[in-house]
Design brief:
Elements: H1 17-56, H2 70-77, H3 81-112, H4 116-130, H5 133-147, H6 153-176, H7 181-189, H8 194-202, H9 207-222, H10 226-231, H11 240-244, H12 255-276
Length: 292
């Protein structure tokens, strides 16, 4: 007689389902916990911003009235806030253009150059970047006073351009490092010069890096107070951060106009970043090397 065939026990198909349901439930609980934590942190961070907008709706003491946009009307019509806004926009625009125009080729040299001169230039940029701004304020003020630039927007613009160039060059060089040099070599083989390949190949693929550098330069100039308050003395030359301090009084502060100017000062960076945000992208160069 043959031995009876042994059968292996077949595991029940539903044995793993409780574990899967438990893992899915834990994952959902973790997502909700992270969402709740991020919501609380966001609410805490936005409390000062909400306070600024709420206080900006208070009416100015000089005119009285109810809660509304009277403070905005007051600072735009009865003060020099519009003129200060124009000064800030003009200085910032010139600084951004100059910083990008100079930092782009300088960053290209730092990215592609491999010799002692370029290495020394990179080290010099790092040293200049690490120095505090206050170290150079007094010598610059003495120099600019002798040149007649102590109380002028031109002098402040020169300082802003010089102060942002080092970091702007590093930012451009870091983005140029992500662009394969084989793209430039292909352009050279087609008869393009080095400068031509820089314009037609490198810069055309560096829009996110250029925009990042421009936004960085914009924020540095737009939010600066130390340089402006030291070099600018005339009310006609004030930028918006310096003009904001004129609303503070010794014994009392009219918070409605102060916060209205603060809201006006916040709007341009929000508008700039909102308009340029869609141009930020990564990985746009990978397709250029397909098939290689």
């Amino acid at each position: 007689m043959s031995a009876p065939a042994t059968t292996r026990p077949v595991p029940a198909p539903a044995a793993g389902r409780p574990r899967e349901l438990t893992s899915d439930t834990n994952a959902r609980h973790g997502q909700w916990l992270r969402f709740a934590l991020l919501s609380v942190i966001t609410a805490i961070v936005l409390v000062p911003v909400a306070a600024v907008f709420i206080l900006a709706l208070q009416p100015p003491v000089a005119t009285g009235g109810s809660i509304g946009f009277d403070s905005f009307t007051y600072v735009l019509t009865q003060t020099a806030a519009l003129h200060w806004l124009g000064n800030s926009l003009w200085v910032t625009l010139i600084t951004v253009i100059a910083a990008v125009v100079v930092a782009a080729p300088a960053g290209y040299v730092v990215s592609r150059g491999r010799n002692r001169l370029v290495a020394g230039y990179s080290l010099l940029l790092f040293v200049v970047q690490s120095l505090p701004v206050i170290v150079s304020v007094i010598p610059l003020f003495i120099l600019f006073a002798n040149l007649g630039l102590a109380d002028s927007l031109t002098g402040v613009t020169i300082i802003y351009v010089g102060g942002t160039l080092s970091v702007a060059t590093w930012m451009m060089a870091a983005y140029f490092d992500s662009i394969p040099i084989s793209l430039e070599e292909a352009a050279w083989m087609d008869g393009c010069s080095v400068f031509g390949s820089f314009l037609r190949v490198v810069l055309r693929n560096s829009l996110p890096g250029v925009l990042s550098t421009a936004i960085f330069s914009f924020l540095v100039c737009w939010n600066d107070y130390l340089i402006a308050v030291i070099f600018l003395r005339s009310n006609n030359h004030f930028t918006l951060p310096v003009g904001l301090q004129t609303f503070f009084q010794q014994n009392a502060t009219d918070w409605g106009p102060v916060m209205a100017v603060a809201v006006i000062m916040v709007l341009p960076p929000i508008i700039v970043f909102g308009c340029l945000n869609r141009y930020f992208s990564v990985g746009g160069i990978g397709g250029s090397l397909a098939g290689q």
